[in-house]
Amino acid sequence: MRAPDLIYTSYPLPHLSLLVLLLEPLIWAAPLTAHATGSYRCPKECSCLDTFVDCSHRKLQRVPDRLPRWTEILDLSHNRIDMVEESFFRGLDQLSSLDLSGNRIEYISSSVFEHTPRLSSFVARKNRLFSIPLGLETLRLERLDLRSNRVTNVSVSDISRICMAKHVDLSRNDIHYFPPVAYAAPCRTTKLDLAHNKLFHLPATSFSIFRHLNALRLSKNRIESIERNAFHGLNYLSSIDLSRNRLNSIRTMTFTTLVSLETLSFHRNPLTTLDDGAFWGLDKLKILNISHNHLTKVAEGWLYGLTFLDKLDLSHNQISQLDSSVWSYTTHLQYLMLNNNRLRRLRSRSFNGLKELKYLQISNNDLDSIDANATFGLSALEELDLSSNRMAFCIEDELALQHVYLPQLKVLKFTNNRIRNIPIRAFYNFPNLKVLDLSDNPISTIMEGAFDPLQLEELYINTKFLICDCKMEWFAIWILDFSELSRNVHAFCAYPDKLRGFEVNDVKLESFVCEHKSPQVIINTHPTSVPNGLMGGEAMLECAGEGAPPLAVYWQAYHNGRSRVIGQDMTTIIHSKSSKDVNGTHEYIYSKLFLKDLVKDDDGAYYQCLIQNHYGTGYSQHALLNVREKPRILNKPNHVVLLPGQNAHFTCSATGIPKPTIKWKKDNGYDFPAAHERRLHLHVEHDDDILYITNVSLADAGVYTCQATNEAGHISESASLTVLESTFGELLDDRTVALDENVTLDCTVNASPMPRIQWLHNGTLLDLNSTRVSTERNLQLLLISQLNENDQGSYTCQIVVGNEVISTKTVHLRVETKPPPRTHYDLDNICTILALTLFAILIIGSFVILVIMFVCCVKDRR
Questions:
Q1: How far apart are CA 424 and CA 397, in angstroms?
Q2: Which of 143, 223, 379, 668 gives 20 to 30 Å between its CA and that of 180?
Q3: Whole-number pLDDT of residue 641
Q4: d(C-alpha 689, C-alpha 633), whole Å
Q5: pLDDT bucket at 35, cuts 50 / 70 / 90
Q6: 787/742 Cα distance (integer angstroms)
């Protein structure tokens, strides 16, 4: 059974009425023959065809009475009905489609749906409903359309009602909140349209109940924020439309649970920030639309995880540059739209990694520069749109596209780029090009062979500025030979005056004549290369040309794959002068570019002179300016004094442009005794060149020179190697001396030339001003008188050359204290002493006894 809207569309109302009139006898007979007895006839306000009852556009204020029981499709749209009562639908148990669109309905009785158990399509758009009708939960609708009503709130119970419909359209209402449903319930909805409402926030699990949802439309709301897990549980969702909202940023992992999502749109939001990993987890995403936002750059971080992305629309943003690494995660991208941004330059490898890209649109930017290798990696590109930029030089300058090779390109759109001249083989790097659009360019000259070796199928040119002289005759013949191309070529002459306004197809071949002086710009003097400009010096480039006035000249430089127009400043001076012929119809111009205080990074480049008039631009040959810098020694070698057997090394580093090479000399020659004995080694460490000599001998002594050389000059620095023939005297050894005695330490050195000697006591320089310390023979002898305990310890003799100690010897001095004098006793004296001692003990003992007896007697008398 066909849906009501399709049937209504297929049979316009006048034709349908005529058909019903012709078949009226059969229609009135139908209930009696095809339907059960007692069925109602077709209402007089409506027209009927089979089981379709069409009551639309009748200005009805209520539902007709006694609708036929056999009605399956009922169209009551575009009337003035304001209420739907259940009595109108009694007995319509066969009804499958009901259309109430375009009425004034504010209320629908819940009992209506009790009488329509087979209803599968319910359309009530463009009414005045303030809520979702009750009773829908009893049906299994395929379509529920409540678009353009006045629904403001959606309750949890409302969600249970709409869940019974597969396709739900609640767009263009006033819904400001869509509640998350915490409990699990069966839900049949596969498509939900909430566009053009007033939603401002999407909380977590907002749509979790719609587990079978396939498409979700949320465009034209007021959404400012989306919580993480807002789309949790939507494992079958393949499409989300969030366009025309108020999103400023997308947080990390916002969509991570949408494992089946294939299409995502943020069209017309004020997005400025996309966090790294914003789309992580969208492994199946194929189409991402972020057009008409405020993004300023394309970042590798927010593209992370979009491995199978097929189409990316970044048009109408504020993107100003593309880095070579941003596409590393989107290697399967086939369609990329970057039109209407702020790109001024395509850097080298701007599309690196996009080996499967087929369509690239960069129109309506401000591009005026393409670096060498800017299109590197676009080997599969089939269509390129560079329209409405400032890229005339890419076509006019024969060298501009020499690094741009697109073997599979079939369609090139280069409209509105101010192209005036098309040189020979301008598109030879696009061998498979079939469609070339050069419309809306003021083309004045097309050189013979401009489209070789192409086999074009479509060519678009419209210009009113052609110079129709003898150089254009070939084009008129070529157009005639390829008539299938001529239908889109509208080229009119502007010169000479007699052919002005004529289309080139209409000009006779004998009329293409070259005059003595062509208005086209001709370069007569090309700038000459300067191979050896010096850093800090000066350089001058000259250029001259002629053509129809007025002529303008300017210079540009091409450096590191990028072109730039040269402006005047303190170190850059452009002087130009011009003159005209007697008639004032031809002008000659001369220009000089003077560069002062040359700097490598700023001035070393290819230079080109451009002379322009109304008929096009003349491009000079490229002149190379090499800025050289004379070598400068950064790390000078130092003088070295050593003893035989020690190791010597000299270090030298230099800078300059180009980087200088370093060579070593000995005594102004290349004879190194150490080299013959394989004791000389050269080593580069960091930027230093190091000369090593091991186990030096007297033959190695001399002057060693570091010489740095490049194309701008050379410079050298020298240092001497002095080898001392030296030994310490044998008298310098460890000593043990008594207290208050004198000591002499001998550090005799046999060396030539004689070095300086210094003494250390216990690691500290010895104080030679002490009255007990004296030296002789240039400090070779150290004398210390009246030794005390503080004088003992280590004494070091050092041989010093300059500030470097080249040899040392240490001895230890021990100071001993004198033993006390010894006393000698003979045996007689010992005996005498013992006798006297015994006698003294007897006398003392007798005295003690007498005292004790006296004390006892005194006690007894008492």
A1: 10
A2: 143
A3: 82
A4: 11
A5: very low
A6: 6
